[in-house]
Amino acid sequence: MRKPLVTFALILTSWLAPATSFAALGHGLSRLPTPITAPDFTLEDMDGKSYTLSSLRGKVVMINFWATWCPPCREEIPSMETVYLALRDKGFIVLAINQWETPDHVFSYMGQLDVYPTFPILFDGDSKVSDSYGVKGLPTTMLIDKRGRVVYRAVGGRNFNHPEVRALIQQLLDEKDK
Question: Annotated Gene Ontology MF terms (predicted)?
Answer without folding.
Answer: antioxidant activity; oxidoreductase activity
